[in-house]
Amino acid sequence: ERPYVCEDCGKGFGSPAHLRQHRRGHAGAKRYRCGRCAKEFRCEESLQQHLLLHT
């Protein structure tokens, strides 16, 4: 069970500590860019989810 969910990308975590660690990745600059539409993301997981929209 993963009751702690990131509000930015929807990814779930089993503990609040893991969620906090993950959220630090959202606080930084947007480092991941979609090669099809140039939309930018802070975490790779969000980019991967976005790429599914292009398929």
From TrEMBL:
The family database entries (Pfam families) matched by this protein are listed as: zf-C2H2, zf-met
- Mind listing the UniProt keywords for this protein, alphabetically? Metal-binding, Repeat, Zinc, Zinc-finger
User: What is the protein name stated in its UniProt record?
Assistant: C2H2-type domain-containing protein
Q: Which SUPFAM superfamilies match?
A: beta-beta-alpha zinc fingers
Query: Which Gene3D superfamilies does the UniProt entry name for this protein?
Result: Classic Zinc Finger (3.30.160.60)
Provide a Gene Ontology MF annotation, just one: RNA polymerase II cis-regulatory region sequence-specific DNA binding
Q: Where is the C2H2-type domain?
A: 4-31, 32-55
The cross-references to InterPro entries, in alphabetical order and at most eight, read: Znf_C2H2_sf (IPR036236), Znf_C2H2_type (IPR013087)
